[in-house]
Design brief:
Elements lengths: L4 E8 L5 H17 L3 E8 L6 E8 L2 H7 L4 H10 L6 E7 L14 H5 L1 H16 L16 H12 L5 H6 L1 H9 L6 H18 L5 H21 L28
Antiparallel strand pairs: 1-3, 1-4, 2-3
Helix pairs in contact: 1-3, 5-6, 5-9, 9-10
């Protein structure tokens, strides 16, 4: 999300006031979560020093926090709950994300869950064989190279947490954007592409558990809708956008650079 800023507030609240402090924040997050400037939040308690707490709030921007939220009615309701604990604050600062983040290996990636490179290559090889016979989609891919299915499988593999081969060998996100420029994809074609790919996933036996399929379908919807938007004659793609990454968790809305 563009412009996001992260606020950290550290509290020291020794017993016997800890339970009351936590209850105050359970009430305070009601107006906080209703504020349009708030992306998300989390209050944690130190396991080593139980009297220490850390509150993390992601704001849409530093200005939205200081000039937006703090001047709103939501702030008044929020502050009314936590005002007794202002004196317990040890640190309150804003931090800028650097893009150095990711997930550990305790949960399999979508790439691993799908079956890796072999499964994705089978998916797209079968899909493009079927697509050649589809009257709606065949004209869109009339000049498709024999390696196209493999390249798309490599792309999705990287997006789903696999090896960064598409970035290393094909030029990454900018290259994929370039493949869609000027194609003028229609909504009917986009929808048919998604439906046919889902049918193919069933045909080849891609995992059908609801957790995987919800993440899989969500990316197909997002990716295909962005492809349609960016393929229009008046589109202005941002070729500097990073390679997308997709996982199991909650997603945020994509918003173009202003």
């Amino acid at each position: 999300m563009l412009g996001v800023i992260v606020e950290y507030i550290r509290y020291r609240v020794p017993e016997p006031g800890a339970a009351a402090f936590e209850d105050a924040y359970r009430r305070a997050v009601v107006p906080l979560s209703a504020a349009p400037q708030c992306v998300d939040y989390e209050l944690t308690r130190c396991a080593d020093e139980p009297g220490c707490y850390a509150l993390r709030i992601r704001w849409t921007s530093a200005n939205d926090h200081t000039a937006g939220f703090r001047r709103s009615a939501a702030f008044g309701a929020f502050f009314a709950e936590i005002e007794p604990y202002v004196g317990n604050i040890e640190e309150m600062r804003h931090y800028e994300p650097l893009g150095i983040d990711g997930c550990g290996s305790s949960v399999p990636t979508l790439y691993e869950w799908a079956g890796g490179a072999a499964a994705l290559e089978k998916l797209f090889t079968t899909f493009y064989e079927r697509m050649r016979l589809d009257p709606e989609l065949a004209p869109v891919f009339a000049e498709m190279s024999p390696e196209h299915a493999k390249h798309v499988a490599t792309w999705l593999g990287e997006v789903f947490g696999g090896p960064a081969r598409y970035s290393e060998q094909r030029g990454g996100h900018a290259h994929m954007l370039g493949k869609h420029v000027g194609k003028a994809i229609t909504e009917t074609q986009r929808r048919r592409w998604v439906d046919l790919l889902l049918d193919t996933a069933d045909e080849i036996g891609l995992p059908d558990d609801p957790e995987f399929r919800s993440a899989f379908v969500a990316y197909l919807e997002l990716g295909s809708r962005m492809a349609r938007l960016l393929s229009q004659p008046d589109a202005r793609p941002d070729f500097d956008e990073p390679m997308p990454r997709w996982g199991w968790g909650e997603v945020r809305p994509w918003q173009p650079a202003s």
